[in-house]
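Open question from group meeting: does this chain pack into something compact, or does most of it stay loose? Before anyone orders reagents, we agreed to write out a predicted structure and look at it together. Recording both the input and the output here so the notebook holds the full record.
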Amino acid sequence: MKVNFDLLTTVEQGGCSAKIPAHLLDKMLSKIPILKNENLLVGTETHDDGAVWKISDDKALIQTTDFFPPMCSDPYDFGQIAAANALSDIFAMGGEVFLAMNLVMFPTRLDMKILEAILLGGAEKIKEAGAVLCGGHTIDDVTPKYGLSVSGFVHPEEITSNSGVKEGDVLILTKALGTGIILAGHKVGETKDLFLQEALKSMKLLNREGARLMRKYKVKGATDITGFGFLGHALKMARASQVKLTLNSSAFPLLSGAYELTELGCLPGACFKNLMYVENETSFSPHIDYNLKMLLLDAQTSGGLLIAVPEDKANDLLNELKASFYPKSSLVGKASRYAHGPYISVE
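Structure tokens returned:
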């Protein structure tokens, strides 16, 4: 459904770039009491992608929510991307979604057909994910925002979490980086339409098949890459798992045009917010390409999965990922024992 209205005229920042900076969140959340329960298998301690509640010996509930302002012009595209992004948290934890509810903030001064297009886009992705849309909640707000509250199921022994990385695991990234920079370039008229469409397609791509393959290969450590950039989410993973991650900056898959736009200086503010979060616990080689460094910090909207897998399974999993929906999947690093110093080394 196409509506002749540019959503970008309503926002200053959108998508996962609109997140509160991670260093501010960490400081604030450290003051909030952590409530524990024997059935809460994954809670707030490790800042994982969702909460997991044990229902029985063979079933656990995953609960998550995600929403943000528009990052693209077309309402239908925005609905698809926002829904794919919210659904991804279930997939990042190895689960399957079964239920979704809309979260809507929308200015009623605008044509309601715009909201209709957003919700139709979201409904399409919910259906594609195999879930049921069962309602939601709406607020009249100045800036449009859309997302989902999502519920999923997973076997307790098949949970993948950001605390599940083991020494010797190899790291696989399933989607190319650069969505934030591509979108920043689009706002100032520097992004070619071909490159913009590639980025939009990547953001609409569900991580559902990635979750299935993680279950097949019995993966225990994973997260999805969103607003805190690759390095921000990798740092959360390294801390939670108490491992050191060594990354090869030249091995990362990039969206077409992303490197060139970085060279032009199309750097959204989220890059520098994410740098503030990781710089004290990340060691950068003095020879690293500055543009690649910025791309590792770029806020990703509906990004790929970062999967930690034993080395003897890595090539088989990588080949299956590439043969399915994720042809740009790449080996980007390795986990080792953490002793002291930075959690991440970028070479």
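Observations to bring back to the group:
The two ends are 45 Å apart (CA to CA).
The CA atoms of residues 173 and 306 lie 5 Å apart.
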